Amino acid sequence: MKIGFIIDSGGIGGAEKQAMILASQLKKNGHHVTFFCLNSNDQIDIVKYLDSLNIEFIDLQFSFTYSHISRFQNIIRLCWKLRRYNLDLLLPYTIRPNVNINFAWQLTGAKASIWNQRDDGHGFGKKYRDKILWFALKNTSAFISNSEHGLSFLNDYIDIKQPKKFIKNGIEIPEIKGSRQTIREKIGLNKHDLVVIMVANLTKHKDHKTLLEAWSIFSKTTSYKNPILVLAGKKGDSTEAIQAQITKLEIEKMVYLSGFRKDIHEWLKASDFAVFSSKFEGTPNGFLEAMALSIPIIGTKIEGIQNIFDHDYNYLSEIDDFEQLAGHIKLFAEDPELRKNIAKENLLLVQKKFGVNRLVDEFEEFWKAL
Known about the structure:
With 370 residues, this protein is an alpha/beta fold. It has two domains: 2-170 and 355-368, Rossmann fold, CATH 3.40.50.2000; 180-353, Glycogen Phosphorylase B (Rossmann fold). It has helices at 14-28, 44-52, 68-82, 95-102, 131-139, 148-158, 180-187, 208-221, 239-249, 264-270, 285-292, 303-306, 322-334, 336-353, 356-368; strands at 2-7, 32-37, 56-59, 89-92, 112-117, 142-145, 164-166, 195-199, 228-232, 255-257, 273-275, 297-300, 316-317. The longest helix has 18 residues, at 336-353. The protein starts with a strand and ends with a helix. 45% of the residues are buried.
């Protein structure tokens, strides 16, 4: 089967990582896989990764416009352009690929197109307002979501009639060579410092603002001389605000903006624990990656995180509550034994619920039934 994965800009976030994991496994299973990007100015890292998997990457150079007429025309051209690749199945990821592909996917000549819902619907806006969005939702062949609340949102939004399925993320557990100390030496971190990391692009809904307020409180009460908060992710719509807040709080020496890291697994492994302060998510990939590397993690009380666990996880803070988050950070910082026990439990949970083979099996079973 010829399968086309369609992503937005070429940058690597959680959705793109999940698409690449699935694509690599499907290729191993004998499918012909191609990656398409709507319009990319930031594709170097994803191209290198796909090249290593011998998966072709194609920039469709799609033009984004807000005029309904121009938008409609561009979508038709986009789908007609995809027709030349003789694809059997289309798998768009995130809101813009989902809308622009599913609106007129039949023009591509494919047998089916599956809407992949990767969040809780925060980008949809008011119901019925966007007619192209509405028609794309009605026109798609089927729906897959990586969270139960994402699927529930879709059902409430349009009353789904097409086939639908909740499929958990699949997490590859990388083998990281070397001890935490040797990794810290390699990437330039002091072996005695407390290092805490958040892996997320610098966008508003990730809510770095609350985390920075919490870090400021923690830094004034901790006995650690040089605690370091690493914000690992590519620049986004909140970058300038984050930089300004760091200056205002006078924590410049205790926060490091690392940018996007190709060696992110080493940075996670070098950290004492991770934090995730997002206001809404599907199932956050960065959260699961930390768990898979036996890194204890603190999060927020959002459905996408709460549903990861089979039990009440006691280290989740209310949204916007920087004082509660600071308390959790202090608790983890001062109790290495607690961190060690949590890390073991979380690794076992990821291995049990978020395996890659299970992800591929559920995908193949679903689309073969369409």
